[in-house]
Fold:
Amino acid sequence: MLQAPVRITLSHAELLLAQFQETAKFRGWSLLAVAIMSNHVHWVVGLDDADHGSKALQSFKSYGSRALNQHFGIPECGTWWTSKGSARALPNDQAIMDANEYVLKQDFPLLIWKAIVID
Structure:
């Protein structure tokens, strides 16, 4: 690592959540759960079959960066995110429920959000 890691604050997390919600709505995705920690983020997102997880990951990171840059400036290292991230598809409803549970039970989150599902 050439520079100090980027750390997310509660102010950053609140801005990111709003941007993630806006991005999901614009793309027609179902944002199911979000956990934002000081050094990483977890999302559970429902996508159409035509959409791919890596597209969602890139969209959330891109629009999140834009919002953070506008409000807080560009970090010293030049980016808010690492170049990698998991974008794996969840094979069934149980896997989605398990992923939601995992995201909602993160240790030391700055912010946790869960969609309200009405049956």
Observations:
- The domain at 10-114 is CATH 3.30.70.1290 (Alpha-Beta Plaits).
- Residues 53-72 form the longest helix (20 residues).
